[in-house]
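Reply to dn_fold:

You asked what the input looked like. This is it:
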Amino acid sequence: MDIIGKKFVTMGEIMIRMTRPGYQRLMQGSTFEDFFGGSEANVAVSLATMGDEVDFVTRLPKNLMGETCRNELRKYNVGTDNIAWGGNRMGLYYVERAVSLRGSKLAYDRADSSMATLGPNHLDWSHILKDAVIFHWSGISCALSQSASDATLEGLKEAKRCGIYTSLDINYRKNLWNYGKDARDVLFPAAQECHVIFGDTGEWQMITGNKLPPFEATDTNYKMDLDGYKKFFDEAQKMFPNALHLVMAVRNQISATHHLLTGLLYTNGQLYHTSIVDINPVLDPMGVGDAFIAAYLHALFKWTNEHQKHLDFALTASSLKNTIPGDFNIVTEEEVLECMKDIIK
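and this is what came back:
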């Protein structure tokens, strides 16, 4: 697939992430470190850093913080011409970093954000998707509000009408679904329209209703139940007959700063698996899944039919994200390929 002259389009909410310095709890200290981040924005920055043309679609308030956010995206060469300006505020989220025996904690402050009040009338999808090769979205946008969900699914509908590739990150966040709709009821039929579906093990179990084999790796010699995963994806393919690429990130957390990662890809009835990577220490795990799917999409449209390379590249980029503070995975294609030589066995 040749993407020259074409663009990736991602759509979702970008927020301000607030974190205490070091490993302080939220109730401690007097200062915060702040980063811009959000699943689909993270994907956009990753793709742009790897050299792809990317447009990010969102809604931002027309104020100093909204304009600062736009400028941050522009710094990474992400296209911002299709931002819908309006609403009163950006969403915030507060993160308490995990350390040793203490897990991370997260609190959202995104009610009535500009993105949550987005509606279908705010976006001209026929214009936005002109010259696009793929439309990437996530379940988070559908979780925010009925109007944001409607706007997102209008984009999916237009992409389908135009014959554009569509990519879904399931991105199930239970505590966001508060407007009376069930996540699976909304996301399952939408996923049936998508060509690429990505999620972690919990998200795949939610959307399919089926159980996965356990992943209990404590080192890189762990033997995965590949037959069990194959059966799972055989059934998932029946549920999502339009899907061409079913992608899964798999992780076991030994401790707050010691994770083991791997990935699986199911395409054309065949299951691909990659190495298990031991990451110790983990500096910042936020955005690791976003880094995975961004790198997978980059590889998918860069190296035709090299399925194993697509998966290996995605796992390597995701592994590197654990070493970078903030939400964005600012690594180049060349850096990922160089690292692949060392970690893919």
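The first strand starts at residue 7 and ends at 11.
Hope that clears it up.
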